[in-house]
Here is the input.
Amino acid sequence: MSAPSVNTGANRVAGKGRLSPAKTVSFTFDGKSYNAMEGDTLASALLANGIHLVGRSFKYHRPRGILGAGPEEPNALMGISRDKARFQPNVRATCQEVFDGMDAKSQNRFPSLEFDVGAVNDGLGRFFPAGFYYKTFMWPQSAWDKLYEPIIRRAAGLGDSPTEADPDHYANRFAHCEVLVVGGGAAGLTAAKAAAASGKRVIIADENPIMGGSLLSDSVVKLNGKTGSDWAASIVSELEAMDNVTVLPRTTAFGYYNHNMVTLAERVTEHMANPDPELPRERMWQVRAEKVILATGAIERHLVFPDNDRPGIMMASAAGTFLNQYGVTPGANVAVYTSCDSAWQVAFDLKEAGVNIPAIIDQRDAIDDALLARAAELGITVKKAHAVTKTRGRLRVKEITIEPVNGVSSEAIPVDCLLMSGGWTPSVHLFSQSRGRVKFDEDSGTFLPDIYTEDCVSVGCCNGTMDMEAALAEALTAAKEAVGGRARKAPKVENASSMNGFKIGSSKGAGPEDFTKAFVDFQNDVTAKDIRLAVREGFQSIEHVKRYTTNGMASDQGKMSNMHGLAIAAEMLDKPIPEVGLTTFRSPYTPVTFGTLVEHNKGELFDVTRRTPMYDWAAKHGAAFEDVGNWKRAWYFPKAGEDMHAAVNRECVATRKAAGIFDASTLGKIEVVGPDAVKFMNMMYTNPWDKLAVGRCRYGIMCREDGFVYDDGVVARMAEDRFHVTTTTGGAPRVLNMMEDYLQTEFPEWKVWLTSTSEQWAVIAVQGPKAREIIEPLVEGIDLSNEAMPHMSVREGKIFGIPTRLMKVSFTGEAGFEINVPADFGQSVWEAIWERGEPMGLTPYGTEAMHVMRAEKGFIIVGQDTDGTVTPQDAAVGWAIGKKKADFVGIKGLQRPDLIGKGRKELVGLKTIDPKIVLEEGAQIVDNPNHPIPMPMIGHVTSSYWSEVLGHSIAMALVVDGHSRMGETLHVPMPDSVIKVEICSPIFYDPKGERTNG
Amino acid sequence: MLKIHCPYCEEDRPELEFHGAGEAHIARPTNMAELSNEDFEKFFFIRDNDKGIVFERWRHLHGCGRFFNAARHSVSDKFIKTYKAGEKKPKLTKKEIEAVLPPAKSTPANEAVWTIEKEGKK
Here is the structure.
């Protein structure tokens, strides 16, 4: 091998790890440039360059180093940017792969990492106990908004939010499989291979870039005679070659939902220097699996001892990973402090790589002879039954003090790195999310899966099976149970390391009598002392202790701290751990970007956009559009120099003087057909329908059973057994749903069929005195004369050669037509009418003019003038209730005492005494504006417009007992004045309705 | 997200395709106009909302469009069965119910353990 030409850090060990010195990348950390090998994580690259100090802690601003090598990392959180718009805060340096040109910044420090003014909090630590914020910033209340909160927010918190919109895109995929394996370690790969052999669909996901889990960091284990990483690589390539298997590295299973739905976040481009812009940055998978095999492994716990958080103090397994995967040593003089066998192998690996190991300090007295023999062989000093009780070094640990666990003599050892291990916590997060129940196992000090509620199974370390041979057997059993078939043979395991021994709770030097800072939760700066204080102050439930101290509430969700916190609380409460209980694990397992959760649903794809067949014409003619539900509706058609009011005034006047043309296609339309159609209509609507002749239309009101108005619209009887029902624009889906509900579940024997035709008909309203004259020459087969086709009638024929249902109806109060044509012909019919009508004064009008004209006539809009507590009588359309009907939806509700008594809010018209003032919709109405506050409010304005045709403002309002208060003066208090109004009929224009006859 | 068996399509489909429609087996009275206020209150407003086995209505809105009924445990969210609208409320067997019960409460995970009462007895 040729010597590397690029220096990727002084702490590299030649020949160690899976990275190639030939492939290097460069990145910056806090503005300074460094080199790394391709495949490095940011953490391994920094350590290779001798950097341990990577952040400041949350509360005390203590210098912090890289603690772990995986997703549990609480300290090394960075702001990562690719360019200005692509910035992500709080990225775990242990998971982020370095790419060429990456810019990393440390967080929560000012002005610099080495000198941070916030660190004054550390010296004041005795004034910042658990619950400090709750206790201190209580008074005065007014200081919260202006003083306390801004200061606390600035001092606490983690990274900064991005300042630009996210330019990347994200994808979503639904997937189905017979077996989903979560975790690609030894157990997961074994289970996946065995399940895949059946030919059934298998998905295996692992959060790391390379599958193999702890095998990749294990220097001694052999499977079928291969090294751990070679074996893992061979299984992965076998799986990748199979059509029925999906292998997803860099993919975190973050949520476990009902009925075996598991969500995965796949990081597609996050590790690439120049990602293909066509690729999504991340992809969300929603996987429905018949069986889920959880092989999520275990996470190593730290030890709780005084000043256990200095940079240079890290997890033993992390050091093993950095050495064996990345060829990086964390120091030159590395002591190991443990209560678990697994840390010993790391010490041996480091020693063999040329690192000085001044001592292995083990809390235990009884230690496996093989480990002792190997240590002796390598010349490593072993301190049995000893504890680390003190550490020194401001920005990096430089000395530790050790004491016998049961003794007082002390000894100082100079180090530049201290590794620690308190044993392993099985990752039961997903199992717990699946609502499975765990049980405490005294022998291993762990919570293990006990009762399953979903169809899943835990195998390997996450099931407490720390022995590799047993774990693989478990994986094979799980796979066989999932897919059937014959039992598969397990790979032969040699030299598997022991994971025996554990410590939960505080170690020597961090007991109740010690005044030291021994960190339980690094990310939220929670010490053993804080948890004891919480218990002393009366918190007994672990859920309360957690919230009071914030232990386990940071973005790492206490992956390392929960068990320690629990053990310390249990000790203080003098109760066994199972009685204190474990806090709840929730989704997501690790933080997930908003982009991944939002996936495609942003910008234009956020929601459906509905356009009518005549949308293009309106756009071409300069329409301003408004959103009505998902519809884009032409709002008004401004001419040069016109604002909305001028345009609307002109449109209203033109329609009333000559004619207007309006796109009413968004109306909901339902075809009600069948021998029992009339019976069904009688049930659904308050109106009677038996006597509605074929060819005639009627305004219908629909209530709910409680008697409140649900929808309204014009209904045309096309044949004895066929109704063309229109609904409000927004109401179409719910009306059809309600109709289907009654038809399917209450009257299934009735012969009626319902079809939504909203998008099949384009509707062109031509309204005004010249309406008939304009359309007449285009119409074939229909006599448009008043005698032949009166107001509220419907005819079938042709217009411009296109079949039409032509209705003579009016929502403006003028004589007019609503022309229904098949949607595909909407625009051409519209254009034909426009071509003929424009020289005759035909004017396009939008929804605003439509609103003004209907309000001039007192026509209600359901949802604007009614609000779900308004009956037909309240809305002054009580005439639409069939008095002789034996039944209809709402018949009983309408009889309820509260709906028929006095004191109902009733719909009335309002005229302002000053005719120029236009009221605000929603404004409250009072009797006496001088009444002391609280002033009784007796109603509110529902619709309000300027009527250019009438020359004064008009309004509709719901007012208590309004129908019997005609002519009374009421008041509308506004911030700067009180507006006087007079109650009147809501029909302001053509009260006798003579104009509809044209 | 629940997986729901549509008894008309005879397929398991994701919850996204369905719409819940409240408690099942509440028939609309045939003498609606003559109903007493008390009976109307019972029919329209009062619902059991049981913690345990519930009979509920669903609509396969983005599928066949049919309304149907389901028996489900409201804590474990597990379905015992779904059946067509109009079919009689099924009599559930002990075995069927036991199969959907949530795990016993005795194990500590995911359950705040309240110890105050116990302390008081000491």
User: Anything to note?
Assistant: Chain B touches chain A at residues 1-3, 14, 19, 21, 27-28, 32-33, 35, 37, 40, 44, 57, 59, 61, 65-67, 76-78, 85-86, 102-104, 107-116, 119 (CB under 8 Å). Confidence is low (pLDDT under 50) at residues 106-122 of chain B. Chain B has one domain: 3-121.
